[in-house]
């Protein structure tokens, strides 16, 4: 008879390995291939993944406007000398200077001011810094 054990008894020592849930950072015993502690966390992770994918971006909006040949008409320009804003006009009529592009935007229906998307949502979309996302409840 051989003295080599047929199966490894240390694998089933009664203590399952512990894992950390990537959604709520709760420590839980791993069962099978699951990486989430509860079905609630698994569903939340699924919704977060798919919500980010389906959200339109400023790049998508610009591409759509370019296809419809409306990109320049919805672009806000600013004069470097008098700081006047123009919608769809690349040249300042008062200073006779070329304007710089500010971003996508339009005219406010309430006050007739020319606003960009960045002005409306309160974020600088042209900056390299990425804002921290708000926690989803």
Give an overview of the whole structure.
By secondary structure, the chain is an alpha+beta fold. It folds into 2 domains: 14-55, no CATH class; 57-126, no CATH class. It has helices at residues 39-54, 58-67, 117-121, and strands spanning 18-20, 27-29, 75-78, 85-87, 100-107, 114-116. A 4-stranded antiparallel beta sheet has the order 4-3-5-6. Strands 1-2 form a two-stranded antiparallel sheet. Strand 5 (100-107) and strand 6 form a beta hairpin. The protein is rod-shaped and about 95 Å long. The mean pLDDT is 81.
Low-confidence stretches: none
Percentage beta strand: 15-25%
Give the helix tally: 3
Secondary-structure element pattern, one letter each: EEHHEEEEH
Number of domains: 2
Rounded average pLDDT: 81
The largest pleated sheet is described as: 4 strands, antiparallel
Give me the secondary-structure category: alpha+beta
Read across the widest sheet, the strand sequence of neighbours is: 4-3-5-6
Strands, helices and their partners?
Layout: E1 18-20, E2 27-29, H1 39-54, H2 58-67, E3 75-78, E4 85-87, E5 100-107, E6 114-116, H3 117-121
Antiparallel strand pairs: 1-2, 3-4, 3-5, 5-6
Short description:
This protein has three helices and six strands, in the order ββααββββα. The protein is of the alpha+beta class. The chain is rod-shaped.
Index terms:
single chain, 137 residues, four-stranded antiparallel β-sheet, two-stranded antiparallel ribbon, 3 helices
């Amino acid at each position: 008879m051989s003295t080599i054990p047929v199966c490894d008894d240390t694998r089933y020592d009664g203590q399952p390995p512990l894992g950390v849930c990537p959604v709520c950072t709760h420590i839980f015993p791993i069962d099978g291939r699951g990486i989430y502690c509860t079905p609630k966390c698994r569903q939340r992770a699924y919704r977060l993944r798919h919500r980010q994918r389906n959200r339109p971006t400023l790049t998508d909006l610009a591409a759509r406007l370019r296809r419809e040949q409306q990109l320049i008409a919805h672009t806000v320009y600013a004069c470097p000398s008098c700081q006047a804003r123009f919608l769809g006009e690349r040249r300042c009529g008062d200073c006779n200077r070329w304007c710089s592009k500010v971003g996508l935007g339009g005219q406010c229906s309430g006050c007739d001011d020319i606003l960009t998307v960045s002005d409306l949502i309160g974020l600088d979309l042209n900056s390299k810094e990425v804002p921290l996302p708000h926690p989803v409840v």
